[in-house]
Amino acid sequence: MAHGLPDPRARRRVGDVVSLAPSWLTGAWPPGLDLPRYFAMGIVVLAGACLQGVGGLGFAMFCAPIAALAFPQLVPAPILVLGCPLAALAAVRERHSIQWSVAGFALAGRLAGAVLAAFVVNILPTPLASILFALMILTGVVLSVRGWHVATTPANSAAAGLASGLMGTITSAGAPPLAIAMHNLEPAPLRATLGCIFLIGSVMSFAALAAVGRAGSADLVLGLFLAPWLLAGFAASGPIARRMSRAAMRNFLLTLAAFGAIAVLVQVTLAH
């Protein structure tokens, strides 16, 4: 073999691995996605799912900025697809702790935010919208650390849902507004209620993107292939979640919200 030329045997080995899969699986395999890239995506999804299993949020805040830079085909729709089963797992695991009134008002706001976002993405440049949301979240985190108390009232829940619908549909990461509004809840009700909100909210955001041609069947297929990594990450979160106190959960949520906002700013800066 000439020096510097790729080894054809290496290509055959990769092909052999793929050929071991059932024909229906290889036929549905997302075009252009090789195995190393798939495994890298899977590790990101696994880590994000573990974070959300612990704190009730964090999946999209962790995955979306990384994906936007390294795996752009993951944002925004496939991450929303993956967010649905992850949120369902969280809601079912602690279903008796769901605060339905909080979830209801937040979902009403999220629906309005998702509908509004469908128009915003076609009017306001996405980078500008992302920067505005990120700066608002950072302001909320700073105020919370300095003693600003946000009561989980119907009005605050609806407002957080509205902001979450806007931010989640535009950037895939709609959790920071809810983290600010709900960080004073006990850990179990927080995780379960957020799971309920994210389950229905992710469907709303995906539908809004599909309505304007920004999401489709290819996003569903990619999400399906990454689902095993999601399940593994959520399973790993269980023992950690059971040890989280209310104070630790509050600090964890505010830290995630801050890093999520900073990551959005970094993502916009590097992409432009």
Describe the structure.
With 272 residues, the protein is mainly alpha-helical. The protein has one domain (34-271). 78% of the residues lie in helices and 0% in strands. The protein contains 12 helices and no strands. The chain has helices spanning 8-19, 23-28, 35-55, 59-70, 77-93, 100-120, 126-145, 154-171, 175-182, 187-211, 217-241, 246-271. Helix 3 (35-55) crosses helix 11 and helix 5 runs antiparallel to helix 10 (187-211). The chain is globular, with a radius of gyration of 19 Å. The N and C termini lie far apart (42 Å). The model is unreliable at 1-6 and 8-25 (pLDDT under 50).
What's the total count of β strands? 0
Q: Supply the helix-strand structural class.
A: mainly alpha
The radius of gyration over CA amounts to: 19 Å
Largest sheet: none
Name the helix and strand elements from N-terminus to C-terminus, one letter apiece: HHHHHHHHHHHH
Q: Percent range for helical residues?
A: over 70%
Keywords:
disordered N terminus, 12 helices, mainly alpha, 272 residues, globular
Brief write-up:
With 272 residues, this protein is mainly α. It has helices at 8-19, 23-28, 35-55, 59-70, 77-93, 100-120, 126-145, 154-171, 175-182, 187-211, 217-241, 246-271. It has one domain.
How are the elements arranged and paired?
Blueprint: H1 8-19, H2 23-28, H3 35-55, H4 59-70, H5 77-93, H6 100-120, H7 126-145, H8 154-171, H9 175-182, H10 187-211, H11 217-241, H12 246-271
